[in-house]
Amino acid sequence: MKIAVMQFPGTNCEYECLVSAREVGMAGELFRWNRPAAEMSAFDGFIVPGGWSYADRIRAGAIASKEPVMDALREEAAKGKPIIGICNGFQILVESGLLPGTSGNGKVEMALAQNVMISNKKIVRRGYYVDWVTIRHDASPRRCSGSFDINKGELLQIPIAHGEGNLVTMEKGLIQKLNDEGQVVFRYCDSSGRTIPEFPVNVNGSTENIAGICNPEGNVLGMMPHPERAFFNWQLPPHDPRKHQMGAVGPGRKIFESMKRYIEARA
Amino acid sequence: MGRKPFKPFAFDSPFAFSLVNFATGQLPPTGIDKFITVHSCITIQKRCTLVKIIGLTDQEAEANLRGSGLGMSVTEARSIAKVLNRDPTLAELFCYDAMWSEHCSYKSSRATLREFLPTTGPNVVMGPVEDSGIVAIDDQWCVAISHESHNHPSQVLPNEGAATGIGGDVRDVNCMGATVVATADPLRFGDPYGPQANKVRWVAEGVVDGIWQYGNALGVPNIAGDIVFDESFDFNCLVNVVAIGIVKRNEIIRSRAPKGAGEKGYDVILVGKPTDASGLGGVTFASEALREEDEATNRGAVQIPDPFLKNVLFKANDDLFRLVREVGVEIGFKDLGGGGFTCATSEMGSAAGYGMELDLDLMHKAGDFPSEVLCIAETQERFLIISPRELREKILKIYNEDWDLPNVYEGARASVVGRMTSDGRFVVKHKGQMAVDVSIQHLTSGIRYQREEKPPVKSFSEPVAEEPREYNDVMMKILGSPNIASREHVYRYYDTEVMGNTVIRPGEADAGLIAPVRGEKFGVALAADSNPFYGRISPYWAGATAVAEVMRNIASVGATPSCLTDCLNFGNPEKPEAFWEFREAVKGLAEACKRIWLKGYADQPVPIVSGNVSFYNESPAGSVDPSPVVACVGIIKDYNKAVTMDLKGAGDKLFLIGPRYDELGGSEYYRTILGETGANVPIVRFDLEKKMIYAVIDAIDQGLVASCHDISNGGLAATVAEMALTRPAAFGLEIDLGKAADASMRTDKIMFSESSGFVIEAKPGSETRLAEVMKGCGLDLMEIGSVTGSRRIVMRRNGKNVVDLDLDLARKVWVEGLTEAMR
Question: Does CATH number 3.40.50.880 belong to domain A2-266?
């Protein structure tokens, strides 16, 4: 089993993603954007990591999504291989039309807009924000590659670090469609799992607290939080009891384990 | 965009004989030695226009220098002409102007630094000789650290100034062959509620934006630092940057030409952004004059940051490091910072005793700029490589093809710009003319000034004030003060998580902690400190307390202080009072390093391995408060043993170490509540300080400590409150102030004295062993109270409640204090 961690100019989370993939037993390597795109077919899955690809020029992810390797990635996606986009990787997948992928023709249907933190109906802050958040898994198990092994309703503590994670759509009915098709994978919630629509629970103003979605087929997942930064228990905040527990693992590990299980299940 | 073709040599150029064909990258058809011999016979045919100095009166020479936009003195110019035995070219004068600037040559400070600072130690791999200092973590791994200031640029253009401050500092660490793993930012802004409030807030916001926009995009976590607001920074903020990296001891790359480079004519390769006129005169006093008189080359003295390009360059540099390891050759590698191309090239050459021949026509650049601009512009995101010719193709491929610099950033690439020589000359050619031809040692040796020192006439006295009747309001004011309030508003902008190494983040403890190497158990802690209010009263104690406090910060998480860096921010050294302040602070910090030993090595000081001196931090309104900012790297053998400062469990006992003294000079209480500075500045009792730091490290190592926080700004009262207010803020606490001092001490002084110490929450059942550890270090452990399940912060004395605050209300004030100040 071999996966590729994509590397665009400005990507900055590829090394820790690779470490996480290897930790769960997937062989992996970095795949630089200017490598021959034909080499992509040799991999069983792909991670598009976070960062500031092409300095976020035009819109976050917009330029990377036009790279020739993205055409190859679309082909690999069509084969049903798992693709997980994290943070800027999510933005790239949205800009490339791979997510939510409902139109079936690669059309860009949504955007990850600037964070807007709203409390008591007032904007209290905008833009870049770093913190640990809780997300609720809203898809059924085995629905989506990156959450293949995660139960519905399970809560995960994972950090976010982004300026543009506020999911907005062009068409009105799209969110309903995503809900109906079970494409909403993660939502920001409080420690009891409640999706309170205001900051700090809805940390970036995202529509219906959405933190991650998958394509209709479920093999492509995009999420704003960084599972690779919540992979080991020592990465957790000090008040999380797992931090000092012998043998405990970080909740982000489940994303990578799911990816591996998904690849195994496909084989 | 296609490849930019190299310009071939002009046929009549003397260099055509001495250099290989850069256009094709082909080695010369005959031996290298021959070419060096040829060079030594060359007579220079054409030299750039000379600036007349010789034979002129002082007034005429002065007019010539100023007319050329130079800031150097006539005496300095005459000494150059004398050594050259002719009038210098304009480019030569600009090179000297940059190299002999305070920034590059430390001409006022070097003697003092040499006299006092301890820079060696059993763990020092490299002291302050190159871009970063390096200390050993274990037999294999090392930490590289650099500490820089970017004060003036950040005051003028806060966003770009702060961003390029980080940019320069991370380059300093990366060029040692290290992976940059963390940054910290000690920041000093003016009074956000004073007469300059709007400007101060504009500067503060811009600086924070510059830091996060650069650091986050680069992908290096910001894990420590501090912010102090003080009216002395109204017109001159301080933006210091600390960067640390990780490197294996046998993979360190030096910032100097390798042995044999001159004899074998090694390549000089310039990498990165195309040279432009940005940051022109960044290090020289000439910048004002340049800006007034030369609009065409004036793009401001502030450089232009590009973290995106830096991110790609760092990865390409990693490939370069891998290549030289595989091939097993030594290269020289250095970043281009202050003094630009001239500084990087000449320092690399002179450090190895060689010379070099450079050709500006071969440099990739953003436009047609004069020689002097190309020589000293401080265009960001550039590196210099000195490498054997047989590596040339491979190195150019890494940057120009693998990482595709020309397509990633317009005009960026790696170019061979010259070669090393063994004749000790620093020769720069441009458009077929000789722009610079000087002795490399003379250029880089700089000059020294013996500055006068004189203590300023200032008098300080303790305030005469009644004890407050009601302490709840006093506590709330202290907690909401911009200098005590939670830093959360700022660090939520910083990507503290990127790289996935972070164990302890800003706000969780007194120091940040990372686990930078997978598979290794060690953690690296980082903190930075300095109190300008102490500096105002006593620069000596400001220096000493900065060292002591930063070491306490490191100890608070359980790490052992391993090395220090200093960034010395002062006024104009030509003024005897400012120079006295500088020397006093250096003496204070040196004394603290020498008297608080490196743990495990009796009588060995904690070494200062890197640093920076920033003078001229003043405006017509006056000089900044003396600010010796100190950063400390600590090592913990097992990062799983580290502790944070948030209270862990109801019923846990709280202990104080460090007796309270009447030391409130410069304290938060005096300034915020009484509106006074005071006189009794906290001093460092070196022996006590050492014992406390060692004892805390040992107690944490033995697993006896649930949480720990050092006492500094705001005293004991603020310290315990912060332990309750820090996330998750799940517990209250109750302490008896009477147990912290004897009956004669006033309650306000017990609460707010800034005498050093620690508050420790013991793990349940560990109290006896904790007391034994303290006793073993010769310390008294004072039990002052306990953690409670009620959401209240309670402080009593003589059975009466002195403070009784609702935890949630207090937290609101504490969290919003900084947001309000920066809005």
Answer: yes
